[in-house]
Amino acid sequence: MSTSPPEWALDRFDEHLQRLPLRERKKLRTRRAIQEHALRLFAEQGYAATTVEQICAAAEISPSTFFRYFPTKEDVVIDDEYDPILMEAFRRQPADLGPIEALRAALKEIFPLVYEREREGVLVRTRLMMTEPALRARMFDAMRSGTQKALATMIAERTGRDPGDQRVQAFAWAVLGVLMSAMYAWLDSDATLDLPALVDENLEFLASGLAL
User: SUPFAM superfamilies annotated for this entry (predicted)?
Assistant: First the structure.
């Protein structure tokens, strides 16, 4: 059952949003509106049956505007607006925190707000990515070119290394691995488990050296 997010989640999320430059905030709001219309149509009539033209009509935008924000229909499911907000929160963490602890602290600021605010949307998007073959393939491409690259950039900044350093790259992939593990566990529970808690537990496990 869909529920509205509590006011505290909206207010605190907007606080993080306001820290971004105006241009970035405007882009994020437009992306969010397009994605909300797309996910509603996917839920109503199925992913394959929904066209870009239908999404544009629902969002009252032109196809050129759609493709400015999402290169393909797959990207409207795969992409999200949260990387810039997470990166801003990560960079604000105390300098004496290592990369995993800084990431955990940033996620504790951002992810519960996203979860309260966008839980149904996150669930719809995740299920689509796991069940639609084209989306599964696009998801891994996006992880490599987007999320992993962003993680490597953040880790490199905090450790004084180059983003292309092999250890930085391996570290970023390890973080993605434990995040994906949390996501699968959440889906396997039919979304009854607390996803932010699962993510934090897995990152704590990674910080321990994955010791069993």
Answer: Homeodomain-like, Tetracyclin repressor-like, C-terminal domain
User: In terms of Cα–Cα distance, which of 77, 15, 10, 82 is closest to 50?
Assistant: 77
Measured distance CA(78)–CA(76) in Å, rounded: 6
Residue whose tokens read 């509590």 = 6
Cα separation, 63 vs 52, whole angstroms: 7
State pTM to two decimals: 0.75
Residues contacting residue 81 through CB under 8 Å, at least 6 positions apart:
28, 31, 32, 35
CA angle 19, 123, 200 (to 5 degrees): 60
Sign of the alpha-carbon torsion through 21, 160, 171, 143:
positive
What is the enclosing helix (H) or strand (E) of 112? helix 99-131
Tokens found for residue 65:
């505007």
Summarize pLDDT for 141-166 with one digit per residue, the tens: 888 878 899 899 999 999 999 999 99
- Within 10 A of 73 (CB to CB), how many other CB atoms are there? 21
